[in-house]
Amino acid sequence: MEASRLIVDDLACRRGERLLFRGLSLNLDAGAACHVTGANGTGKSSLIRILAGLLRPYAGTVERAGSVALIDQSLALDEHLPLGRALAFWAGLDGAVDAANLETLGLADLLDVPVRYLSTGQRKRAALARLLGQNAQIWLLDEPLNGLDRDAVAMVQTLVAQHVAGGGIAVVASHQQIAVPGMAVLHLPDFTRELVR
To answer: What is the end-to-end Cα distance of the chain in Å, rounded?
Structure first.
């Protein structure tokens, strides 16, 4: 299997006539992690979507080697299904959800609860269960700590650290601090007042 790699070269992103960021370059090999920071509106979520291939950059290139898994603000679980059935749908597409992971994530007792009744933190942990089931090499996480209590934040940090230690790559866009050994920090400056020329 090819080693994971994520290379970003001279990336720029715009929203309407406003430039969010420009000249962004990044080179992450297997075992690397990056924390993307910046003020609201500087393009953290847009960067994650560009890295995932869901949004086209204004300029620059993204090169990925390895499978990609994404956690963003949309849960992508059927609100009307019980959690167990909603996760089972995705397990049929991208890999089984391990019962041990459900226990670790505090979801084992919630499998009969419709997704619409889950709290923000429970929804975030459900997204993590799906992420773990995908066995992807590159994790792209947009605000994965929102809605989580201190213990759950520590659990996410441990999961990211284990993923990276196992040769994976993690890019985490978050307003909150995330403690992962060796994690690089990429701060997006505020270009939002700059018009595209």
So the answer is: 43
